[in-house]
Specification:
Length: about 350
């Protein structure tokens, strides 16, 4: 398939506010290297990393310590169809529908976390009509779901599955999920239930009806004044958290002896107070989770194909309205994930 010379793309020009985005209808279309493919993007989900990279929340060097290079096309949660392949790549891939892995591995050392790059942060991503990718960093997906529905999974569900794997969540656990109405929170509820765990979801009360569809065992308000009292004797063995903020001391405080706290975000605020006596006197384990093992993405795609998890598509916007979509994302009034389509 011949690629057009130019494409539509939303381009980030620097750290800052939404005004740092520029809409282009004549941006050069990427060409595949010998062992690469070019994917025609059908949809791309939004996530917190997009916002944090734009604002410089991770620092000028980005979350990984590498400089963020501008201009940059963001967008990690890309789904589409292979439109072109390089000279040394299997041409039968053309036309296949794929999900792109957010973690772009160095295949000389795929387990080396320091060599992994993030799609749309350290290389151009899916906020455009086309994107270039190493075929080892994507998966063909067989699903009845639309591209927009599939674009809700990659970042949220791989993040959540990696958290649960790192905390070794199983059928004997009770998992507490703050921020259960968000993309990762909703994924944590579904994936914890898939593992056989009991799940307690925390969310704003106006979102409880939507979260009920995910079948948590108990739903509580977003930030109870007394979390232990609200739990009414529930024995929490795992806290799976992307919120942190003012509730954090209570989250640690309700864990059972030998409990595990796993974190992959801090949307409620990263600076928290910790009494170390709570950790060592109660034999707690604190776990961070960012770069995920290579198998996690493939596992999540398998769960999708088996219909073991379902999408939570909150809204779809045209790509050229990315600023409006990101504004809605930051307002946190939605349940699930917001997606843009070229």
């Amino acid at each position: 398939m011949l690629l057009p010379a130019t494409m539509k793309a939303m381009v980030l020009t620097d750290h800052g506010g939404p005004d740092k985005y520029e809409w282009h209808e004549d941006w050069p279309t990427p060409l595949p290297g010998p062992r690469e493919v070019v994917v025609r993007i059908g949809a791309c989900g939004l996530n917190t990393t997009d916002v944090n990279t734009r604002t410089g929340w991770y620092g000028k060097t980005g979350w990984s310590g590498r400089p963020v290079r501008f201009p940059l096309i963001q967008g990690a949660d890309a789904v589409g169809t292979i439109a072109a392949v390089g000279d040394s790549t299997d041409p039968s891939l053309i036309g296949k529908r794929v999900m792109i892995d957010g973690w772009q591995r160095d295949w000389k050392a795929p387990e080396d976390m320091n060599r992994a790059r993030y799609f749309g942060s350290e290389c151009d991503g899916g906020f455009a009509e086309y994107a270039r990718v190493d075929p080892r960093n994507m998966m063909i997906v067989d699903s009845h779901l639309s591209d927009a529905e599939l674009a809700t999974f990659q970042c949220s569900y791989t993040t959540a599955e990696a958290m649960l794997a790192r905390a070794d969540v199983g059928s004997g656990d009770t998992v507490l999920v703050p921020g259960a109405s968000g993309g990762v929170g909703g994924a944590l509820v579904q994936l914890s239930k898939r593992r056989g765990a009991r799940v307690i979801a925390l969310a704003s009360e106006d979102k409880h009806s939507a979260i009920r569809a995910l079948k948590p065992d108990l739903i509580l308000p977003r930030a109870p004044d007394d979390l232990r009292a609200a739990l009414e004797g529930e024995a929490v063995t795992v806290v799976a958290d992307v919120v942190a903020g003012p509730l954090w001391p209570q989250l640690i405080g309700v864990l059972e002896r030998g409990g595990r706290y796993v974190c992959s975000g801090a949307i409620g605020g990263p600076n928290v107070t910790l009494d170390l006596r709570q950790v060592y006197l109660r034999d707690l384990t604190l776990l961070g989770s960012t770069v995920i093992p290579p198998n996690i993405f493939a596992d999540v795609v398998t769960y999708i194909e088996r219909v073991e998890i379902k999408p939570l598509l909150a809204a779809t916007y045209p790509l050229r309205d990315l600023i409006a979509a990101q504004t809605a994302f930051e307002e946190k009034r939605h349940v699930g994930n917001i997606v843009v389509v070229p």
